[in-house]
Amino acid sequence: MNKREFIKNLGLGSAAVIGAPILLQSCSGDSETSSDFKLWVWTGGGNKTESDWDNEISGLKDLGFFGVLVGGGKEVLEKAIPAAKKHGLEIHAWQWTMNHPGDKKAQEHPEWYAVSREGNSSFDVRPYVDYYQWLCPTKPEVQEYIFNHMMDICDTEGLDGVQLDYVRYCDVILPQGLWSKYDLVQDHEMPEFDFCYCEDCRSKFKAEEGYDPLDLEDPSQDENWKQFRYDSITNLVNKIADGVHQRGKKLSASVFATPSLARMMVRQDWDKWNLDFVFPMIYYKFYAEDIGFMKRATEEGIRDLNGSKPLYTAFYLADKNIEEVSKAVELVKETSANGMAFYDYGLLSEDFRKVIQQKTTP
Predict the structure, then answer these.
(1) Contact at 8 Å (CB) between 162 and 244?
(2) Cis omega before residue 136 (within 30°)?
(3) Residues 253, 95: Cα–Cα separation, whole Å
(4) Closest Cα to residue 17, out of 245, 279, 250?
(5) Residue 205, CB-side half-sphere exposure with 13 Å CA sphere
(6) Is the four-CA dihedral 100, 105, 107, 111 of positive or negative sign?
(7) Do residues 61 and 88 lie in contact, with contact meaning Cβ atoms separated by under 8 Å?
(8) pTM metric for this prediction
(9) Which structural domains are found in the chain, ordered by start?
(10) Residues paired with residue 315 on neighbouring β-strands, in sequence order
(11) Is the pLDDT of residue 362 over 90?
């Protein structure tokens, strides 16, 4: 099951990173962009020809889009890059980071996978859905594997940058709009969704703090243990950032809606990451929130970043009507966000194209 199929099956009209169980420096297209409010879109497709990419990216340029986040390996990127360069759009490689279902190389190392507080490895026992197989970010071998993969992708000629997705732990707390889907009330951290308690994590933590988290009556309440896991992801992101920046390219990430929610739900301390820009996935229906959440969450992220990097509010197009898309753009434009990103190209209907262009053209 691919990402969009999985989300569609949830029937909640929300998005990828948050829903599973479910990126500023001077840019090449800046001088050609008529507005400081920049538009991005996620896209992909291993079967697209160079001509297909040319038609797609040409159309996005005509709509005023600034950049594309392209999923797939080097073969896909090498077909899409010429079209992006021809039409003056930024192109970044959209790459999954910690969630590795069906990864042949990683599957050769079951010991790389994260372990729940119950003692189950996500290699064997997958939380929420079969779609989830999470690697442990603390293990040096995993860090090396992920870093090397990102550098290989980053070295693709003509690529402007790398965009990290699933750069987090498994959802220890789902957004409230998803609780009924799994017949859960997640008002606390449940052991089966609480990661990672592998030997490497516990022994490293004990060496730093003097105790094993499993010796605690309730590890979920220990601030040192929480911070240890925030830092495990942050250290990996910043290691990748160093490599990407040494290659003269940019790094971004798609993240949970706000820094506070991200820390609570998936151990993501994203306002501390050395990114060039960030895409908070503000999918209000997942949070059982009204559309005003688009503005409130965007403002929280901007406040917490404190001018350290640009922020592009991400919006999921599924299960939305024209009025909702129009209102979402209006609300984000009332903030000081640098623009918006839409998931994904396949959902960008003619009606949505018209309203986005109308609302974002000066």
Answers:
(1) yes
(2) no
(3) 9
(4) 279
(5) 26
(6) negative
(7) yes
(8) 0.91
(9) 23-360 (3.20.20.80)
(10) 342
(11) no
Burial of 132 (0-12, 13-18, 19+ CB in 10 A): buried
Are 145 and 103 a contacting pair, CB within 8 Å? no
SS (H, E, C) 266-317: HCCCHHHCCCCEEEEECCCCCCCCCCCHHHHHHHHHHHHHCCCCCEEEEEEC
List CB contacts of 239: < 8 A, sequence separation 6 or more.
143, 147
Three-class HEC string of the chain: CCHHHHHHHHCCCCCHHHHCCCCCCCCCCHHHCCCCCEEEEEECCCCCCHHHHHHHHHHHHHHCCCEEEEECCHHHHHHHHHHHHHHCCEEEEEEECCECCCCHHHHCCHHHECEECCCCECCCCCCCCCCCCEECCCCHHHHHHHHHHHHHHHCCCCCCEEEEECCCCCCCCCCHHHHHHHCCCCCCCCHHHCECCCHHHHHHHHHHHCCCHHHCCCHHHCHHHHHHHHHHHHHHHHHHHHHHHHCCCEEEEEEECCHHHHHHHHCCCHHHCCCCEEEEECCCCCCCCCCCHHHHHHHHHHHHHCCCCCEEEEEECCCCCHHHHHHHHHHHHCCCCCEEEEECHHHCCHHHHHHHHHHHCC
CB 172, CB 266: distance < 8 Å: yes
- Tokens 């099956």 found at: 9
- Tokens standing for residue 3: 């990402």
Answer whether 115's CB lies under 8 Å from 136's CB: yes
Which tokens hold the place of 211?
Answer: 């105790």
Place of tokens 């306002």: 271
Q: What average pLDDT does the structure give for the chain? A: 91
Confidence of residue 35 (pLDDT cuts 50, 70, 90): low
First to last CA, the chain: 40
Decide if pLDDT at 13 tops 90.
no
Token pair 């050769």 is at which residue? 108
Q: Which tokens sit at 189?
A: 């951290």
Residues 6+ apart with CB under 8 A from 223: none
